[in-house]
Input
Amino acid sequence: MRPMNLKERAKQLKTDIPAVFIAIRKKETPALAKITAGVTVAYALSPIDLIPDFIPVLGYLDDLIVLPALVALTVKLIP
Output
């Protein structure tokens, strides 16, 4: 399997985010996946970041790395 480029990852993220929202509502979703999905949604909507956005480059870099990583982890936990 070849590595995905940035454009392919962005398209995959567009389909994964709705899957996370749907997974939260389904009874069949395991508890760990629901918890991870909740953390992902809370982090995405929270005004508090690991690295504040006013720090040049690093402030936005955590959003570009942490959020997709949380979405990918959540999707892996969904059966």
Notes: The mean pLDDT is 82.
